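B., you asked whether I could sanity-check this one before it goes into the benchmark set. Here's the sequence:
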Amino acid sequence: MLSENALPNVIVADPQPMIGWGLERYLAENQLARVKAFVSDTDSLLEALSSQPDIDLIVIELALPGARGRDGVHLVEWIQRHHPDVRILVYSIMGAPLLASAVVKCGAVGYVCKRNPLHLLDEAFARIRKGEIYIDPMLRPPRHSGKPLSPTEIDIIRRLAHGATVGEIAERTNRSVSTISTHKRNAMMKLGINNDAQLVVAGLLDWLGEL
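And here's what the prediction gave me:
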Protein backbone atom coordinates (compact mmCIF):
# COMPACT_ATOMS: atom_id res chain seq x y z
CA MET A 1 0.00 0.00 0.00
CA LEU A 2 1.29 3.46 -0.93
CA SER A 3 2.28 5.79 1.87
CA GLU A 4 2.34 9.59 1.78
CA ASN A 5 5.81 9.53 3.36
CA ALA A 6 7.60 6.58 1.73
CA LEU A 7 8.63 6.66 -1.91
CA PRO A 8 6.70 4.09 -3.98
CA ASN A 9 8.50 1.27 -5.76
CA VAL A 10 7.74 1.64 -9.46
CA ILE A 11 7.93 -0.32 -12.69
CA VAL A 12 8.16 1.83 -15.82
CA ALA A 13 6.56 0.10 -18.81
CA ASP A 14 7.18 1.85 -22.12
CA PRO A 15 8.26 0.67 -25.59
CA GLN A 16 10.75 3.56 -25.93
CA PRO A 17 14.04 3.05 -24.01
CA MET A 18 14.66 6.80 -23.91
CA ILE A 19 11.36 7.34 -22.09
CA GLY A 20 12.32 4.71 -19.52
CA TRP A 21 15.77 6.25 -19.06
CA GLY A 22 14.31 9.74 -18.69
CA LEU A 23 11.53 8.71 -16.32
CA GLU A 24 13.92 6.79 -14.08
CA ARG A 25 16.07 9.89 -13.63
CA TYR A 26 13.20 12.35 -13.36
CA LEU A 27 11.38 10.33 -10.69
CA ALA A 28 14.59 9.84 -8.70
CA GLU A 29 15.85 13.42 -8.95
CA ASN A 30 12.48 14.84 -7.91
CA GLN A 31 12.09 12.24 -5.13
CA LEU A 32 8.84 10.94 -6.55
CA ALA A 33 9.58 7.21 -6.70
CA ARG A 34 12.17 4.43 -6.84
CA VAL A 35 12.24 2.78 -10.26
CA LYS A 36 12.80 -0.94 -9.63
CA ALA A 37 12.51 -2.07 -13.25
CA PHE A 38 12.06 -0.82 -16.79
CA VAL A 39 10.20 -3.07 -19.25
CA SER A 40 9.27 -2.52 -22.88
CA ASP A 41 6.51 -5.10 -23.49
CA THR A 42 3.64 -6.79 -21.67
CA ASP A 43 5.42 -10.13 -21.28
CA SER A 44 8.34 -8.50 -19.44
CA LEU A 45 5.89 -6.47 -17.36
CA LEU A 46 4.02 -9.51 -16.12
CA GLU A 47 7.31 -11.28 -15.38
CA ALA A 48 8.52 -8.27 -13.35
CA LEU A 49 5.26 -8.14 -11.41
CA SER A 50 5.57 -11.82 -10.53
CA SER A 51 9.23 -11.60 -9.48
CA GLN A 52 9.01 -8.34 -7.49
CA PRO A 53 6.25 -8.48 -4.86
CA ASP A 54 7.17 -5.06 -3.42
CA ILE A 55 5.96 -3.04 -6.42
CA ASP A 56 3.52 -0.28 -5.51
CA LEU A 57 2.87 1.37 -8.86
CA ILE A 58 3.26 0.89 -12.60
CA VAL A 59 3.85 3.88 -14.87
CA ILE A 60 2.64 2.52 -18.19
CA GLU A 61 2.22 3.48 -21.83
CA LEU A 62 -1.02 2.02 -23.18
CA ALA A 63 0.54 1.35 -26.58
CA LEU A 64 2.69 -1.47 -25.20
CA PRO A 65 3.66 -4.42 -27.44
CA GLY A 66 3.39 -8.03 -26.34
CA ALA A 67 0.86 -10.79 -25.90
CA ARG A 68 -1.48 -8.58 -23.87
CA GLY A 69 -0.67 -5.31 -25.61
CA ARG A 70 -3.40 -5.23 -28.25
CA ASP A 71 -5.78 -3.21 -26.08
CA GLY A 72 -4.35 -0.96 -23.39
CA VAL A 73 -7.69 -0.46 -21.65
CA HIS A 74 -8.18 -4.18 -21.16
CA LEU A 75 -4.53 -4.53 -20.09
CA VAL A 76 -5.20 -2.11 -17.23
CA GLU A 77 -8.29 -4.10 -16.28
CA TRP A 78 -6.34 -7.41 -16.38
CA ILE A 79 -3.52 -6.06 -14.18
CA GLN A 80 -6.01 -4.75 -11.63
CA ARG A 81 -7.79 -8.09 -11.52
CA HIS A 82 -4.60 -10.15 -11.06
CA HIS A 83 -2.51 -7.65 -9.04
CA PRO A 84 -5.09 -5.65 -7.07
CA ASP A 85 -2.50 -4.15 -4.70
CA VAL A 86 -0.52 -2.55 -7.54
CA ARG A 87 -1.69 0.86 -8.70
CA ILE A 88 -1.46 2.03 -12.30
CA LEU A 89 -0.55 5.48 -13.61
CA VAL A 90 -0.95 5.74 -17.37
CA TYR A 91 1.68 7.96 -18.99
CA SER A 92 0.71 7.86 -22.65
CA ILE A 93 1.24 9.64 -25.94
CA MET A 94 -2.52 9.30 -26.46
CA GLY A 95 -4.34 12.36 -25.13
CA ALA A 96 -8.02 11.50 -25.62
CA PRO A 97 -10.31 12.45 -22.70
CA LEU A 98 -12.54 9.44 -23.38
CA LEU A 99 -9.53 7.15 -23.13
CA ALA A 100 -8.51 8.65 -19.79
CA SER A 101 -12.04 8.06 -18.48
CA ALA A 102 -11.99 4.48 -19.74
CA VAL A 103 -8.74 3.48 -18.04
CA VAL A 104 -9.77 5.09 -14.74
CA LYS A 105 -13.06 3.21 -14.96
CA CYS A 106 -10.99 0.00 -15.36
CA GLY A 107 -8.95 0.71 -12.24
CA ALA A 108 -6.08 3.08 -13.10
CA VAL A 109 -5.41 5.77 -10.48
CA GLY A 110 -4.09 8.35 -12.90
CA TYR A 111 -3.62 9.43 -16.51
CA VAL A 112 -1.05 11.93 -17.83
CA CYS A 113 -0.41 12.72 -21.49
CA LYS A 114 3.27 12.72 -22.55
CA ARG A 115 2.70 15.78 -24.71
CA ASN A 116 2.03 17.90 -21.63
CA PRO A 117 4.55 19.43 -19.15
CA LEU A 118 6.58 17.08 -16.97
CA HIS A 119 5.53 18.84 -13.77
CA LEU A 120 2.12 17.18 -14.12
CA LEU A 121 3.85 13.96 -13.03
CA ASP A 122 4.77 15.66 -9.74
CA GLU A 123 1.14 16.52 -9.11
CA ALA A 124 -0.02 13.08 -10.20
CA PHE A 125 2.33 11.31 -7.76
CA ALA A 126 1.35 13.65 -4.92
CA ARG A 127 -2.34 12.99 -5.46
CA ILE A 128 -1.91 9.25 -5.91
CA ARG A 129 0.09 8.95 -2.68
CA LYS A 130 -2.88 10.58 -0.91
CA GLY A 131 -5.14 7.88 -2.31
CA GLU A 132 -6.72 10.19 -4.89
CA ILE A 133 -7.38 9.82 -8.61
CA TYR A 134 -5.49 12.14 -10.95
CA ILE A 135 -6.40 12.95 -14.56
CA ASP A 136 -4.31 15.35 -16.60
CA PRO A 137 -6.17 18.70 -16.37
CA MET A 138 -5.28 19.45 -19.98
CA LEU A 139 -7.48 16.58 -21.11
CA ARG A 140 -10.72 18.49 -21.40
CA PRO A 141 -14.00 16.58 -21.45
CA PRO A 142 -15.37 16.19 -24.97
CA ARG A 143 -18.23 18.42 -26.08
CA HIS A 144 -21.30 16.21 -26.20
CA SER A 145 -24.19 17.47 -28.35
CA GLY A 146 -26.75 16.01 -25.94
CA LYS A 147 -28.43 14.07 -28.76
CA PRO A 148 -28.74 10.35 -28.07
CA LEU A 149 -27.09 7.84 -30.34
CA SER A 150 -29.40 5.74 -32.48
CA PRO A 151 -29.32 1.94 -32.12
CA THR A 152 -27.59 1.74 -35.52
CA GLU A 153 -24.93 4.26 -34.48
CA ILE A 154 -24.28 2.37 -31.23
CA ASP A 155 -23.96 -0.91 -33.15
CA ILE A 156 -21.46 0.63 -35.57
CA ILE A 157 -19.37 2.09 -32.75
CA ARG A 158 -19.27 -1.30 -31.03
CA ARG A 159 -18.15 -3.00 -34.24
CA LEU A 160 -15.45 -0.40 -34.81
CA ALA A 161 -14.26 -0.87 -31.22
CA HIS A 162 -13.83 -4.58 -31.94
CA GLY A 163 -11.64 -3.88 -34.96
CA ALA A 164 -14.07 -3.99 -37.88
CA THR A 165 -13.58 -1.56 -40.79
CA VAL A 166 -16.33 0.52 -42.39
CA GLY A 167 -16.23 -1.80 -45.41
CA GLU A 168 -16.55 -4.92 -43.26
CA ILE A 169 -19.46 -3.43 -41.31
CA ALA A 170 -21.23 -2.55 -44.57
CA GLU A 171 -20.81 -6.11 -45.85
CA ARG A 172 -21.94 -7.74 -42.59
CA THR A 173 -24.99 -5.50 -42.16
CA ASN A 174 -25.97 -5.50 -45.86
CA ARG A 175 -25.61 -1.72 -46.12
CA SER A 176 -23.56 0.50 -48.42
CA VAL A 177 -20.19 1.90 -47.37
CA SER A 178 -21.56 5.43 -47.74
CA THR A 179 -24.45 4.64 -45.37
CA ILE A 180 -22.09 3.26 -42.71
CA SER A 181 -19.80 6.27 -43.16
CA THR A 182 -22.75 8.62 -42.65
CA HIS A 183 -23.79 6.85 -39.43
CA LYS A 184 -20.18 6.95 -38.23
CA ARG A 185 -19.90 10.67 -38.97
CA ASN A 186 -23.21 11.42 -37.21
CA ALA A 187 -22.10 9.45 -34.12
CA MET A 188 -18.84 11.41 -33.98
CA MET A 189 -20.73 14.72 -34.17
CA LYS A 190 -23.09 13.68 -31.38
CA LEU A 191 -20.21 12.58 -29.15
CA GLY A 192 -18.12 15.67 -29.89
CA ILE A 193 -15.10 13.67 -31.08
CA ASN A 194 -13.03 14.17 -34.20
CA ASN A 195 -10.90 11.11 -34.92
CA ASP A 196 -11.20 7.36 -35.28
CA ALA A 197 -9.13 6.56 -32.17
CA GLN A 198 -11.57 8.45 -29.94
CA LEU A 199 -14.52 6.79 -31.71
CA VAL A 200 -13.07 3.36 -30.90
CA VAL A 201 -12.70 4.39 -27.26
CA ALA A 202 -16.35 5.50 -27.32
CA GLY A 203 -17.21 1.94 -28.27
CA LEU A 204 -15.19 0.66 -25.29
CA LEU A 205 -16.95 3.12 -23.00
CA ASP A 206 -20.30 1.85 -24.23
CA TRP A 207 -19.09 -1.66 -23.34
CA LEU A 208 -18.22 -0.26 -19.89
CA GLY A 209 -21.68 1.30 -19.49
CA GLU A 210 -20.47 4.89 -19.74
CA LEU A 211 -22.46 6.04 -22.79
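One thing to flag: The chain has two domains: 9-135, 151-207. Otherwise nothing jumped out at me.
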